[in-house]
Amino acid sequence: MRFFSDNAAPVCPQVLEALARVNVLDTAYDGDRWSQQLDGAFSDLFETPVRTLWVPSGTSANALALAALCPPHGSVVCHRDAHIQNDECGAPEFYTHGAKLALAEGVGAKLTPDSVIAVLDRVQQGVHWVQPHAISITNATEYGLVYTPGEVAAISEVAKARALGLHMDGARFANAVAHLGCAPGDVTWRAGVDVLSFGFVKNGGMSAEALIFFQTELADATLYRRKRAGLLLSKGRYLAAQLLAMLEDDLWLANARAANAGAQLLAQAAADRLVHPVEANEVFLKVTPDEAASLRRLGFDFHDWAPGEVRLVTSWDQSEAAIRPLADAIAAL
Amino acid sequence: MRFFSDNAAPVCPQVLEALARVNVLDTAYDGDRWSQQLDGAFSDLFETPVRTLWVPSGTSANALALAALCPPHGSVVCHRDAHIQNDECGAPEFYTHGAKLALAEGVGAKLTPDSVIAVLDRVQQGVHWVQPHAISITNATEYGLVYTPGEVAAISEVAKARALGLHMDGARFANAVAHLGCAPGDVTWRAGVDVLSFGFVKNGGMSAEALIFFQTELADATLYRRKRAGLLLSKGRYLAAQLLAMLEDDLWLANARAANAGAQLLAQAAADRLVHPVEANEVFLKVTPDEAASLRRLGFDFHDWAPGEVRLVTSWDQSEAAIRPLADAIAAL
Amino acid sequence: MRFFSDNAAPVCPQVLEALARVNVLDTAYDGDRWSQQLDGAFSDLFETPVRTLWVPSGTSANALALAALCPPHGSVVCHRDAHIQNDECGAPEFYTHGAKLALAEGVGAKLTPDSVIAVLDRVQQGVHWVQPHAISITNATEYGLVYTPGEVAAISEVAKARALGLHMDGARFANAVAHLGCAPGDVTWRAGVDVLSFGFVKNGGMSAEALIFFQTELADATLYRRKRAGLLLSKGRYLAAQLLAMLEDDLWLANARAANAGAQLLAQAAADRLVHPVEANEVFLKVTPDEAASLRRLGFDFHDWAPGEVRLVTSWDQSEAAIRPLADAIAAL
Amino acid sequence: MRFFSDNAAPVCPQVLEALARVNVLDTAYDGDRWSQQLDGAFSDLFETPVRTLWVPSGTSANALALAALCPPHGSVVCHRDAHIQNDECGAPEFYTHGAKLALAEGVGAKLTPDSVIAVLDRVQQGVHWVQPHAISITNATEYGLVYTPGEVAAISEVAKARALGLHMDGARFANAVAHLGCAPGDVTWRAGVDVLSFGFVKNGGMSAEALIFFQTELADATLYRRKRAGLLLSKGRYLAAQLLAMLEDDLWLANARAANAGAQLLAQAAADRLVHPVEANEVFLKVTPDEAASLRRLGFDFHDWAPGEVRLVTSWDQSEAAIRPLADAIAAL
C-alpha cells in the first residue's frame, strides 16, 4: 500500500520477458539487432525521423540532452522546482561542464512564455553574462501538471525567436500523453521540442530510458558523450529490449493510463484538499500532520512534500482495488 | 561459434532469475534491501571491511575510481595499452575533470615497478608539471596476463613511497583470481590496492559492476559523483541482485574458471603461435591473413588485433565442446 | 567627468614606478624576489601568517578561492546579486568544475545569518541534492555597503556550525576597510574568513590582485590550479611589484579613502535620492530618465542600474574638485 | 650573464612607455580605444582579416585556442615534447574540459605529415576511441627549430584532409619569422594555420600575448571562454598597449632578430657540440657535467636539459658584447 514513488514499483512482466528473449549471443554495446531497431521504432511512434539512444537513467538522459543544447559558458532556463535543478546533484552542470540553470517561475512548476521571457530579459548582452542557450520543461511537471501541445508551442516560439534549444524532461512523458490523448509527436516535435528524455523506468521499466533527438544532428556528438560518461553499457541489448517491449502494443500508454486512473481516484476522494489539479499520476494534498499520521497508521506510505502537504504517487501496477482503500481513507479524514 | 568478445555472451541464468526474484515493491535508488547487503557481502568475500557501489558499466567504475584518487590537476600512471587510455573515449578525463594519463611501458600490458618509476622520475617537481597522484593497473591485463599478489605488492610499494593511490581495473578480475587460485583479498587490499573495479558483466552478468573501496573513506564523495553522473539508477535492486547472484556459491569464480579453461584449450592447440602466455580468457595468436580468413570461413568470429595477430576471447558459457572445433582448426592451420 | 566604473580610472603613479623599478633581470613566474616577498608583506598587514598568490583579475581570484573551498558536486551560498553569480560569465562554475551557486536574499546585497540559513535549510541531506560547502560574501557589497566585523563573524558562525568555508570577495576590500577604520584582520580572519580576494585594480592598480589564504593549507592545490588556468604569468615580478607598491605607506588605504570621500560628497548632495546608504565608493540614486539625461548633458557619465536608478562610482584619483560639479548638479536637480 | 630563460629578461622600454601613454581614463575590459585597434593592427600585419584577443599568458592563449578547436571528447595531436603537453600543468585539459593530447614523434620536436598520420591512423573510428579534432605545432619548436611555410603547409594538408583544426603555438613566433625572413602570413594562414598563439612576453613584452584567429568565427565563443576563465582583465588597455607597442616599427621583429643573432654567436662557438641546428634563440649543447660546472663558475646561468645536455636561451636585450663571453667560454671548453 505504497504511494511513495513510482520508482518503488516493480518492473512489468513484459519487460522481464523481453530480457529473457534477448538473452542470446549478439554484438556488444549498441551494435546488437535490438538497439539497431530503436531509431525505427521511435520514428514510427513519433511519425518523424528521430535518433534514439538508450541510457540507464533519467538523470543521464536529461544531462546528455542539455549538453547537446548548451555550451559550458551558457545557461538553460528551467523552472525553479525542476528536477534538473533540485534532484540530480548537479548532473546538468557536470555534463555541460558548468553551464548554469537560470530559474524561472510558474504555477505548478510550469513555465510560461512570460515567465521565460522575464528570465531572458534580465540577461544583458555581452561576455560578462552567461547567455541562455536552451529552455528545459518537464512534462508532466514535478507537480503532476501536463503541458498541452499549445502551451509547449508557445514556449517554443520564445525559444525559436531567441535561438534557444528546447528540451523536454519526460520522466513521466507517458503519463502526460495518456492525459492529453494526443499523438506523442503533437506535444513534442510538432510543438517545437528538439530533444526529449522519454522515461520508461517509472512506468514499469527496469533500467532503460530513451533519449530522443528530433534535431537528429545533435545525436552524433551525444554518442561520444554517452560513451565518455560510462553510459554505453556493454550488453546494450538488455536496455534496447526493455524499450521495445514497452512500445509493443502501446504498453507504455496502457501502463500510464493505469497510473493516471489511480491518481484520479485519489483526486476525487481528495476534493478541495488538492494543491494542484491532478493530470498525471501525482496527487498533492493538504493534510494536517495528524491526518498524515492517521493515514500512515492505516499502512499508507507517502512523501511529506512541504509543511501541511503530502505527495501521493500512483504506479502502473496499482489496480482500482489497490487504490480504493487510500481513496476511502482520504475521504474519511 | 564466436570468440569476438565476452560482452557478446548471454547473461547467465542465475542472474536473470535474481532479477525476477527482486521484482517486488521496494525503495528506490540504493536504499533497497539488496543494495544494502552489498557492503556486507563483499566485505565477507574480501575478508576486510569494504564499501561497495554498484554501477552499470566498467567504464564508469574505472572513471569513478580514478576521480576518487586523482585531482583535476594530477595524473594517473597506467600502461600505454590500458583500457582506460584506449577504449573509454576519455571517461577518466571526464570524471576527473581533466587529469592526465601518464603512459608507462611493460610486456603484456603489465606495469612493473621499474616502468612506473621511469614515468614518475620524468616528472619534475613544481606547478608547471602535472604531478602523479595514482597508478592504475588492469588485472587480468588487456592481453590476458595476470598480476600475481607479489607483483601487485611491488607496484604498491612504489605507490606508497610516492603517496600515490592504487587502482585495479578488474574488468576480468574473476578470470585473474581463477587463474591465481588465491583469495580475492590477496591480490587486492593485502597487496596494497585502494580501489577495485570488480567486473561482472563480461563474466555472465547483465548490467552491474561493483566498485569496491578498500580505502573506505573514499566512498563518501564517490556517492555524490555517482549520482551526479546519472549512474544512480532509480531501481537499484535490479543491479544489486545481479551482484549478489554472482557471489552466491561463488558463481563468479565458476564462470571465470569455465572461460579460462576454454582459453587453455585454445592455447594448447596454438602452441608457438601464442603472442602472450594465456592466463585468463584471452588468446592472442600469430596468424597470416590467409589463415585468419580460413578460420573465418569455418564460421569462427574474432578480432583482428594487429597485422598478423588476432584475439580470441572465451566466455563463461562455452563448454569444451563449444571450444574444441576452433582448437582443432587452429591446430590444423 | 566620469562616474561609470572604478575600472576606468588610470593606474596610480606609484604602481607604474614600481614596474620600472623591477624592470631588471630576475627569475620567471613567481620565483622572483618580489613575488617571494608577498607572503611576508601580507602576513604583516593581516597580523597573521597568510599565503598570498598574485593573479591578474578579480574574477580569477574569486574563482580560485571557490575552487579551493568547494568540490564539483557542492554549492556555494552567495547573494542573489553577487558579482560571482551575475558578472563573471560562469567563472565559478568553470573553476569548480560545475559547483552550483545557491542564491540567498538580503538588503543591499548583504547576506545575514538568517538569509544564509534559509538557503541551507532548504537542502535535504543525501546524494540527490547538491550540498553546500562554502559561503561567499562581498565586502564592500555590489551596492556599496560594508559588512562590519561583527556581521562577518555572525555569518562565519553559521559557516563553522555547518562545516562550510567562508570566502570574501574583496574587489573593493580597501574601500570597506577605509570605511570601517578597523585593522584588515578584524574584518577577515578574526571574523572567520578563510580566503580573501583582495582587490587592487579598481583602487589604482593595473593588473594584479591578491588571493589571500588565511587557511594557509588551501594554497597548495591552488598553486596548481593557478598554473593550469594560465594565470601564472611568466614575468610575475610585474604583478608582485604592483601589490607591494600598493602596500607601501598604506597607499591602498589612502586611495580607498579618497574614493570613499568622493562618494560621501555625492551622497550629501543626493540626500533622499539615495537607494542605499553610502559606505564605500558607490552611490545609487533614484533619478527620473529626464534627470539622468540632464546630468549626462552636463558631461557626467554613469551606469543605468535599473529603471529610475543610476549608479555612480568614484575613484582613487578624483579630488573634491573633480567631484564637486556632479554633487552640485545632483543637488540642483 | 644569464641564459636560463627569455622570461627572465626585462621588458623593453617601448612597452613600458606605452603603459604610461595609455594611463588615462578609458573604458574597462576590452572596450578601450587600444584594445579596439588590435583587430586592425594584426589584420594589417597578417594581410588578412583576423580576430585578435589579448590574454595575459602564453598558456592561456594556447589553451583557449585548443578549446576553440577541440570538443571535450576529442584529441589534439601534438609532439611528445610540446609545451602544451609538458609544461602547462594540464591547461589544455582544463580549458577543453578533458580533451586528450595524442603524442606524436619527430626530430627536434617537429611534427611531420608522417608522424601525424602515424598517430591518426592508430585511432579506430567509433565512439570508444577519442577522435582527433586538431593538430598543434610549436614554431619555433621547444628545441629552437623553425617550421618553414612549406612544412606547415604539408601538415595542414593532413589536417584539412581529416577535417582537423591547426593551431600554432607561437611563444617564439617572432624568432621563427625572424629566422625565416618571410611575411608572418606566409607561415600561418597561407600555410593553413587556423589559430595562432602569438607570443610577445618572451620577446620583450610584460604581460600580454595575442591570440589570433584566422578562422575568425572561432573568436566569438572564445570571448566567453576568456571572460569565464578570469582572463578578461578589467583594465585591458594596459595589455593592448603592449601589443601595439611591439608592432610599432616592427619592434617585435627587431627584438627577435637580436635574440636570434645572440644564439648564432653561441652556435658558431659551439660547433659540433650542438644537439640541434640553431634557428631561433635556443641553443642545446652537449657538455659534460664538469664542463657545465666550469661554465657556471664563470657566472653563466642555464638550464640542465638532460643528462649531458644543457639549454642556453638568448634574449632580445642581449648585445653581442653580452653574449661574447659565453661564446668564448664555450669555444674554450
UniProtKB/TrEMBL annotation, chains A, B, C, D:
Has UniProt tagged this entry with the keyword Lyase?
no
- Required co-factors: pyridoxal 5'-phosphate
**Pfam families in the record, alphabetically?**
Beta_elim_lyase
Can you tell me which residues the record assigns to a coiled coil?
A: none
According to its UniProt entry, the protein's GO biological process terms are:
amino acid metabolic process
Q: Which GO terms describe its molecular function?
A: lyase activity
Ranges for domain Aromatic amino acid beta-eliminating lyase/threonine aldolase come to 3-287
Keywords assigned? Pyridoxal phosphate
Q: Which InterPro entries match?
A: ArAA_b-elim_lyase/Thr_aldolase, PyrdxlP-dep_Trfase, PyrdxlP-dep_Trfase_major, PyrdxlP-dep_Trfase_small
Tell me its family.
Belongs to the threonine aldolase family.
Subunit structure and binding partners: Homotetramer.
User: What is this protein identified as?
Assistant: Low specificity L-threonine aldolase
Annotated source species: Sphingomonas psychrotolerans
